[in-house]
Amino acid sequence: MTKIATRDAYGNALVKLGEVNQDVVVLDADLAGSTKTAKFREKYPERFFNMGIAEQNLIGTAAGFALSGKIPFASSFAIFATGRAFEQVRNSVAYPNLNVKIAATHAGLTVGEDGASHQALEDIAIMRAIPNMTVIVPADGVETEQAVFAAAKHQGPVYLRLGRPGVPVIYGEDYRFEIGKANLLRTGTQVGFVATGIMVSIALEAAEALKAEGIDAAVLNMSTIKPLDQEAIIQLAKTTGALVTAEEHNILGGLGSAVAEVVGEHCPVPVLRVGVKDVFGQSGTPAELLAEYGLTKENLMEKAKQAIAKKTC
Amino acid sequence: MNEELKQQLEAKAREIRKSIVRMTGAAGSGHPGGSLSAADIVTALYFHEMNINPQEPDWADRDRFVLSKGHAAPVLYAALAERGYFPKEELLTLRKMGSRLQGHPDLNALPGVEMSTGSLGQGLAVANGMALAGKLDQKDYRVYALLGDGECQEGMVWEAAMAAAHYRLDNLTAFLDDNGLQIDGPVEEVMSTKPLIDKWKAFGWHVLSIDGHDMGQILSALAEAKNTKGRPTMIIAKTIKGKGVSFMEDQVGWHGVAPKPEQVTQALAELE
């Protein structure tokens, strides 16, 4: 299966976007080679601004660009864009509701060998708690490109969460991403996976493996965490009666929490959450880390069975 | 220096000071000290220096002012009202539920407010972004920012200082309202930001040092800033916190305390 990192898709999409939209400017904080904004820098050097290792200033400057009619994409690693610069994002971008796109790469465990200091596992929770913020976590390269264009079209702050390693391409070029719309990739009647980011393709594998065991599992790609597609979640809860969420993020405050909130209020069914269980990561290869923290096909299958079992109790 | 202009601006500054006293008095809270210290600077900007149109607050080619020390909102609101952005009577709604005059400036609430500020240290970076966009679009507008001396304790100020010099933002002029006091006491005692002049010079800025209550010096500094090419200008303005109201002048206690009715009366009498 073809693999492409969402950060690579981001870099490529920015170049395409920059060609059709002259208002787009890109800011980075000394990580252009890693976030892939370097591709935009090569093509449009006059519209690229390196702010150095100064993420607070990165976000503040992007706010100033937005106030002057530009569409700034500000990039860094997720840990710095949402952690170091949290209060700038809150007070200088989200509170004034400015048109800043925070495109952060190297989110989650799959940063890999750099270890816990660089593995953002809290960013979804932090960003979705801020009013006016839209939070998007694309599942593959195709969806990433669409999300970049959708973010540019959307008026207001957007957090785009991207990853480091290659992930399987699950969408064809005819796919159309829409902010706030979940995408049902696979129908099923017994259990529903609600997954985001790199966990979508793993959930698809789990669903296929469960089929061999006679279990009919649905897969919903929740690529927009905020605004959350409540209708899609309620519908899935009704049709399957049991949900399993999957995210490369702390189990607290992210997708699992968001889904449980909706299900609890509108259609209470068992919801089991797969994510990092409120611990920090460590150095390792992405595959080793996903295995160590239970972000695997096998664990999703196990949790699906447990969720089904809970229906009857 | 045109003496008539100077006198006009000084009269405007007095009006703005009176508004600051009235509005903080009516609000029963707020920050009169740091608003009064910046009154002459803000007056010079809004009534002489800046190319703005109150009838068209979002005019694309306007000059921009970012009040980085957002707690001095009363001086900004007073200037905007005096300049005709909204009715002066509305000043008395400061800090009240539902008012457009939020405790710290909200750009979406009130016309003329260029940036929502209040969390210290963030305004200069935003001004940088505006200045960079102006250069990119080859526009002639200028960007102004006002910082506090205590505010310079925020690390982000120096990130922005570095960036403004790096990008040679000569369309950016910043003021440092050097009133020497912050909430917990004199800046020198809490956490010294001195030597301010050397620091801003070392960061690559053209630095001017003036008396921030001398209208002539303020206007001359602004003129020099406009003629300075290749780097941003920082005008370090020595000021007196609470300037114009005898019992507030240079008093730490008047950072974030509103005058009581009898104190409002006395202050207004002094400002006549």
* Biggest sheet: strand arrangement of chain B: 1-2-3-7-6
Instruction: Give the full name of the CATH homologous superfamily of chain B.
Output: Thiamin diphosphate (ThDP)-binding fold, Pyr/PP domains
**Total E-strand runs of chain B:** 7
Number of helices of chain B: 10
Query: How would you classify the helix and strand content of chain B by structural class?
Result: alpha/beta
The largest pleated sheet of chain A is described as:
7 strands, mixed
Mean of residue pLDDT values of chain B: 97
Biggest pleated sheet of chain B: 5 strands, parallel
Low-confidence stretches of chain A: none
Provide the descriptors you would attach to this structure in a database record.
heterodimer, A: alpha/beta, Rossmann fold, 2 domains, 7-stranded mixed β-sheet, 5-stranded mixed β-sheet, 13 helices, globular, B: 272 residues, alpha/beta, 5-stranded parallel β-sheet, two-stranded antiparallel ribbon, 10 helices, 7 strands
Characterise this structure.
The complex is a heterodimer of chains A (313) and B (272). Helix content of chain A is 42%, strand content 20%. Chain A is an alpha/beta fold and 313 residues long. The model of chain A has no long low-confidence stretch (mean pLDDT 98). Chain A has helices at 6-20, 32-35, 38-43, 55-67, 78-84, 86-94, 123-128, 141-153, 199-212, 230-240, 255-266, 286-292, 297-311, and strands spanning 3-5, 24-28, 48-50, 71-77, 101-105, 134-136, 158-161, 166-168, 183-186, 191-195, 217-221, 224-226, 243-250, 271-276. Chain A folds into 2 domains: 3-168, 3-Layer(aba) Sandwich (Rossmann fold), CATH 3.40.50.970; 183-310, Rossmann fold (3-Layer(aba) Sandwich), CATH 3.40.50.920. Chain B is an alpha/beta fold and 272 residues long. Helix content of chain B is 42%, strand content 12%. In chain B, a hairpin with a 2-residue loop joins strand 4 and strand 5 (185-186). In chain B, helix 1 crosses helix 4, helix 3 (39-49) packs parallel to helix 4 and helix 3 (39-49) crosses helix 9 (215-226). The relative contact order of chain B is 0.17.
